[in-house]
Amino acid sequence: MTVQLDPARVTQVSSLTAQYILTQQQKYLPRAVPVPLSQKTAMAGFFSPQLLDRVRILVLRSERIADPDFYPMLQGLGFKSLPAQSGMAAITLCDVVVSHGAFSNGLLFHELVHVEQYRQLGIPRFAELYVRGFLSGGQLRSNSFGSERVLIGWPIRVGSE
Prior knowledge:
- The chain is α+β, with helices and mostly antiparallel strands.
- The chain has one domain.
- It contains 6 helices and 4 strands; from the N terminus they run αβααβαββαα.
- It has a 4-stranded mixed beta sheet.
């Protein structure tokens, strides 16, 4: 059964999601480091130097990213299968990418696509599309952003500023 939310509730959940993203970004930024030169070089043909210089990454060693504190509200609305943040390989929080394991080039590339989406959309719009994608298909990563397929398919740099 798919849970339907009225437009006001979608706006509320989108706003809570944006606040979660911002709060988590601020939490992890002080410990995050620049992308290593070897991985910047590997990504240079796909992302702008400005984007690669701005991004910070963090590999968590003895902790996991916490679920949003609004999950109980969503469960109360009938959502049964909310994704556990601690089970994600990595989470992009605007320009900070937090991982639960080492960054392979493939994982980093995928997360940099999200950094570019944040750059183009801003946190509020990114959060809204994320929520709407979840509501339309029950998956946060599948079809949440029609633009992701376009961004991944670009053979030239993205994120020129």
